[in-house]
UniProtKB/TrEMBL annotation:
CDD domains: TM_ABC_iron-siderophores_like (cd06550). Belongs to the ABC-3 integral membrane protein family. Pfam families: ABC-3 (PF00950). This is Metal ABC transporter permease. Keywords: Membrane, Transmembrane, Transmembrane helix, Transport. It is a multi-pass membrane protein. The chain crosses the membrane at residues 6-29, 59-76, 83-108, 128-146, 242-258. Its main location: membrane.
Amino acid sequence: MFEYTFMQNAFIVALLISLVCPMIGMFLVLRRYSMIGDTLAHASLAGVAVGLLIDVNPIISAFCLTSFFGVLIEVLRNMFRRYAELVLIIVLSLSVGIAITIISAGLVHTNVESFLFGSILTVSQADVWSVVILSIISLTTILWLYPQLVMITFDEDGARIAGIRCRAINYIFAILVAATISVSIRIVGILVISSLIALPVATALQLQQGFRRTLQWSVVFSFIDILSGLFVSYWIDAAPGGVTAITSVLLLLLVIAGRQLRTVLEKRPEGV
C-alpha cells in the first residue's frame, strides 16, 4: 500500500499526530479541560470554511482561527469564573455559526466531508509540510514549558504563588491545542479529534503509573489507535476518523478488562 503517495503522506501525518495529540491531551485530561478540546475541534470547522473561502491551506486557516477561539476561551473564562461551561457554549455557537453560514450560503465549492470524517486520499504534500511545521513548533513548546505545565496542571494556585506566569502559559497552551487539532484534521476528521486527544490518555491512566510513564504509554496507545485506524480504513475503504475512534474505545475497554482480570487473580487465594 505504501507505493501510493497519498499513503506515504498519510503515514507521516499519522506518526506526528500520534506524538502531539496525547502530549496535549495529557494536560487537558488532568486539568479536566477535555471539553475545551472538543469545543475547539468543532470550532476548527470555521477555520476550514474560511480557508476554503479565501483559497488558503485549510490546515493553516484552521490553526489561525482555532487559536483565536482558544485565546477567546481563556479571556472569557476569566470573566465567567462561576459559569465556565457557558464560555464553551458561546465559542461553540459563534464558530459553528460562522462555518454553517459560509457553507450553507454556497460560498465554498469544495466538499467538506473529508474534513469532518478524515480522509487518507486528500492528504497533499502541502498538508504534510504544514503538519510537520506545526508539530515541531508544538513539541518544542511543550518541552520548553514542560515543568511549568506540570505544576499548573496539579496546582495552578501554587504555581501562581511560585511566580509562574499562569495566564500567559494558559494562552500559549490554548494555541498548542489549536495546533494539535489543526494537524489532525486531514487524517482523523473534525468530529472525532477530541476522542483522539482524550482516549489514549484515558487508556494510559488505567495502568495507574506515574505522570511521565502515563504520558509515555498514552503516546504508545495513540500510535496503536491511529495506525490501526489508518490501515483498517484503507482496507475497508472507510473514513479513518471513525475507525480510529472505534479502535480507541476498544483498546480502552481491553485495558480496563485486563486490569480487572489482574485484580481478580491477585485477590484469588493461593492453591484455588
